[in-house]
Amino acid sequence: MGLLHGLRDPNSRYSLARRMRSRRFDFFLGLLSGLPPPISILDVGGTQDFWESMGFVDPEACRITILNVQAPAPRHSNMETVEGDACQMNGFEDGCFDVVFSNSVIEHVGDTERQEAMAGEVRRVGKRYFVQTPNLYFPIEPHFMFPFFQFLPIPVRGWLLRNLSLSWGGRIHDPGAAREAARSVRLLGLSRFRAMFPEAQIYRENVLGLSKSFVAYGRW
To answer: What is the pTM of this model?
Structure first.
């Protein structure tokens, strides 16, 4: 599985994930280019490392708030870190950010009700938004890099996680932890994703003619 992990590792120069992220961010930059600085951005579920790697450390160009389950101390004057829940962002007023950005997070927040709650909060606190998620129907599940993993019963997924090195940390030996890891990702198909962001346009990231992931971008 080493090769497959390398292909999905955004830090690898050969990574498909890195190439797609770069193209996705170029598209995002094109949207941002029409906004006057400084641009206020809320990153839901992101990291400072990501924005550093993209060169977004200029306080005159942008102010970035990063909401996540943990809030390490900010390393740059234009960044703020906030601990919170993507599905209940009560600390933010309506429309208080120029842009809400989220990359591969909505599939991790829980069941359909929580996914819809996150989408509602993104649309509430942002004047505009840019939300990416992998496609449920792409043949290779992107988190575990196993064909059609997302359609297998939870017990089968748990068995695979215990017996194959599919997760970043290798095999998950504890049966309960393996089942929990299998349940932790709930991928979205296009129709459900589009319904959560009804005014959005959809940007498709294609591989070999198949949509690997989608971006909902609205109100630009």
So the answer is: 0.90
